[in-house]
Amino acid sequence: MSSTAEELYRPGLEGIIAGETSVSTVEQDDLAYRGYTIEDLSKHASFEEVAYLLLYDDLPTQSQLDGFVAQINAHRELPGPVVDTLRAIPQNVNGMDMLRTAVSMLGHFDPIAGEGHDQDVERAIHVLAAVPTMIATRLRLGAGQDPVSPKPGLSHAGQFLYQAFGSEPTALHEKVLDLTLTLYAEHEYNASAFAARVCTSTLSDFYSAIVSGIGTLKGPLHGGANEAAMEMISRFGSGPEAEAWAHHAIANKEKIMGFGHRVYKNGDHRARILEPYTRQLGEAKGEQFRVDVYDAIKDTMWNEKKIYPNVDYPCGLAYFFMDLPIDVYTPLFVASRVTGWAAHIIEQRSNNRLIRPRSRYVGPAIRPYKPVSER
Ligand code: CMC
């Protein structure tokens, strides 16, 4: 390895520019999808508009949006063998493992013929429509209930909640799910998007790249943090109890899930946008003590470590207040992030070069082989 290559080494690729993108910018001062700030999008746009923006490079006109929504609706029902697979997967299997298998299975029944940019966009819509149905179907089967068919006229967020619970959601629940889908949709060269790009760069297929993203998002240092954060919050019955634990955990150098970020050092824009809604949901649910636990851990992290929460911290508690089982929180992250992954897959294909970095070798020097009898 040349000294130039060694100089470029950063553990975890921290700060390394690993490629170019026009999908989003992740900066200390702003997060923007294709030039639209997350503040503007979360205030004014539906998730469907955001998904269109990511897949087609700009916001839709009304007729483009209507056509896009119709296309999503046309792909909501799962192929029979995928439903059979959901029935066959044991109930105790992790939600992300279920989704990894179900999306892979969906690829075997791909209704889109041929390869190319337009086919990739269509496949993205196919997966975007199917993933919420997979999560809802799995929830229903786990509760011993029949799957619920999609109901025409509902928003993407409302549709998932309808299919999961069998009744139309409150306006607040629909709004918050829509918002979290917007906030989770895209985040530049995060680990799962990078995994999807690495897979794509070998000229592998669309579904393999999405499955690479799912497997990578699962980990608690990435998307799995929303579940891990809620598992933590749910352990405490009061703010003081949580605060005492947080002091102890920090003193023991434990990682507190839902805090910190590789890029953001002044706080995560998405967490700031979502937090007021989490508080509102807590009030609506009459569970202020959980908000006290949330605040106690957040304040202790700030006072002792000066580390801010990331989006997964308020999101875990928001989903909990919406009566969603913890096992579906990271799958719901997938339901959103498939749009960002697809945008990266399409972008990677449009200007592909195999992603194949080097490593610094730290093993033994070249040594002589000895026959088994001499070892
Ligand atoms: N709890 C306690 N200490 C932390 C945390 C945390 N959550 N995050 C960072 N630190 C400390 C860390 O111990 C280290 O301190 P020191 O220098 O004294 O050893 C310092 O901050 C730098 O941490 P790092 O782990 O080297 O930073 P990184 O850039 O490699 O990691 C991270 C970023 C997100 C993996 C990390 O902050 C973390 O593990 N957070 C918890 C998991 C989490 O919430 N992940 C979600 C990420 S954002 C959205 C998403 O992808 O879903």
What features would you highlight for this structure?
single chain; 375 residues; mainly alpha; Citrate Synthase, domain 1; 2 domains; 3-stranded antiparallel beta sheet; 2% strand; binds carboxymethyl coenzyme *A
What does this 3D model show about the protein?
The protein folds into two domains: 32-169 and 178-218 and 333-350, Orthogonal Bundle (Citrate Synthase, domain 1), CATH 1.10.580.10; 225-321, Cytochrome p450-Terp, domain 2 (Orthogonal Bundle), CATH 1.10.230. It has a three-stranded antiparallel beta sheet. The chain has helices at 3-7, 38-44, 47-56, 62-74, 80-88, 95-107, 117-142, 156-165, 171-184, 191-201, 206-217, 225-233, 239-251, 269-285, 288-305, 312-321, 329-350; strands at 24-26, 31-33, 36-37. It has 375 residues and is mainly α.
